[in-house]
Amino acid sequence: MKKTVYFLGSLAMLALASCSKDNDPGTTPPPNVTNVDVRGSITKDTKWSAGVTYRLRGYVYVDNNATLTIEPGTKIVSNKDSAGVLIVYKGAKINAAGTADKPIVFTSAEASPKPGDFGGVIVVGNAVGNGNHEAIEGGVDAAHKAFGGTNDADNSGVLQYVRIEYAGKAVNPGDEVNGLSMYTVGSGTTVDHIQIVRGLDDAFEFFGGSFNAKYLVAYNCADDDFDLDDGYHGKIQFGVSIKDPAFNDDKGTSGDISNNFEVDNTTTAKGYLLTPITNPTMSNFTAIGPNNATGTVSTYGYNMRWRRGAKFTLANSIVMGGQRAGLDIDNDPTAQYYVNGLSGFKNSLLQSYGDNYKVDALATASILTAAGLKTLVEGRDGSKVFATAAEVGLNDPFNNAAPNLAPKAGSAAATATAAFTATALNDAFFTKTTYVGAVDPAGTDWTKASWLVYGK
């Protein structure tokens, strides 16, 4: 495959000739160049430098075991005419280690940015999935559609202090690029301090894999914020999901609705039982739904939608404002896992506009009812339910332009005590907090740090 990279200076365009596979673009732009267009493939180790803006023109593949290093403070953009997508493919690595003061930002190059101007970021590893999706979504070329492997310890690099804005690329119905898509990425990969802002589709979608992550923020994205499937079996701590009541991904009559969490194992056609089973272990989330605010669109769904044979543990979290329901369990295997204690919404706080509990799509209705789910959640799993948001006691969670997720002094949210007693939560990965939710009521509020943005 031939590659061409264009360097656009302030006075003229300097073009590198089409490069052979053994002569990829160099790591340093010519002097005085501050804008670089990137097309095609990167097949040798390459560095993108702070002070230069890199514009993705269509799909850009990091391939051939190359490492793309992106310096702290670097800006990567795209225009709506091409909606650039960065794909770090199997065997290659991304080294995007931003800092709190110098985050790496992927965003729109348009004067009036809109969701979908930037395509998204896709990382593909060699860890284990269950084959639910047969190919990578979003219009990638035929040579890069396959994913999955056998090495759960695989290392796809580093993503730290990264912000992805205005992402999302709809190629066909149900065939889309998300803000950050991780396909069978292994546990050797470092993922923390990532924000997805105003995305056209899902914020985070993890297709299989075993990597772990901390400090993930989904803000005002149209579809699901944490969409986990294909056998994803990693751990996540300190997550935030905030919904704009007036913005979501209307997929018409498909039945697909927008949720804070949507967690599946496999599709109906594949029988829900492919292994490994999707089984995330998560703690210290704060998830904010629309809570029927003025202007809430009709296709909002649930705070939590667990379905299609998934297992899960979500603990020490605060979940509020679900539109249709707070906690929804779909399909027989998912319900049976909850009844058997293999799944749990543990030691958490829940408030919903809609029903707190809902059970749907069971072939065997006697497995679990909404009343039975309530008994398990509030009894065995030690979670508490509140009639109003005020009773939970966060400062200003539904102020979409400037959310304040910190608990008020003396509130239920401030006085609730975390528990890491479940076997899956004993792992050394988890910081053993004394508090529930994403924000320490007695500490610095990390959701107000300078690398994060709101109001978009």
From TrEMBL:
Alphabetical UniProt keywords: Signal
Signal peptide: 1-17
Domain of life assignment: Bacteria
Protein name: T9SS C-terminal target domain-containing protein
Lineage summary: Bacteria, Pseudomonadati, Bacteroidota, Sphingobacteriia, Sphingobacteriales
